[in-house]
Design brief:
mainly alpha, globular, 16 helices, 2 strands
Amino acid sequence: MTSMPDFTPSGTDAARASRQSWIALAALLAIVPAISGCGLKIFGWQPLTSHSTAALPKVEGTSLDRELADARAQSALAPGEPYWPFRIAQLYAGADSTARAEAELKVSLAHDANYAPALSLLSRLYYQSRRHQEAIQLLEAARQRPKAFPNGVPQTLLAGLALHYDAIDRHDLAQQVMSEVTRPDPREGGPAFVYLTLRGDQPEGAGDLAARVVAENAKSAASQNNYGITRLRAGDPESARRAFEKAIDLDPSLPGPYYNLAILEKFYLLDNEAATRWFARYWEHSHDDPDGLAGAIGGVKDLAGKRDDKCPDRSASSGWPEC
């Protein structure tokens, strides 16, 4: 049996193995407690951090044109103000025009290299395009700039930096960045810190923060999914089930909760039939099976043998679940 990466109930070898695959904006890997002497890997999806597009309102058509015109007019009245280019970038990002968004963010940062909203959004765009080294250079320069942030580096920037380090397998540096935050704010860096803690050597430490994050934003499917993982780790499968099902209610397209429910039914509640049903529903959304769950369940090998030709091969470590 397995789970979000590798097996064995505890120890750095399992944690290290878990970090070596399925790194993506939406992919969450977490080792859960041993069952009958085996480690179980939980596979979930984490599309909500400061690097998610979920917070960007979609603006289309004439509404976009009107808002862009208004923002440009305001920018012309205050040519040195970093907010208005940032606002234009937000609008472009919400309309999936990332190249234009990036250009405007660089204008904003030319006005103020320490403007945190522009740094955070540019970091997110870099994450989505897997330009992690560029993002690290950007954020480290801001982090180390003398007197850049008199009240301390904003948690959103530290969370972004940690995510980029994690994405290039520098988990030691990700943990070092995280250690600068003594109490993560559930509205700021909290979702990212839950994700990174679940991926780390002490995933049990994510429980309290995951609860605070989901209490702050109960309508986040990703946060519900992550909270469910922490409840499953805590030996509370019924609370985990409610969280996973809530995640599905909020975003039925999110693959992870279906997979997590299949694991819950198979290994915690020992209901192979229910596990098969959840896995079949998962298979409608994604064909990744990092835990070999199809083989463990049995009776769904025909699903595991199929591939969706419209989707790229996502078995590589940097596979991005976009289909």
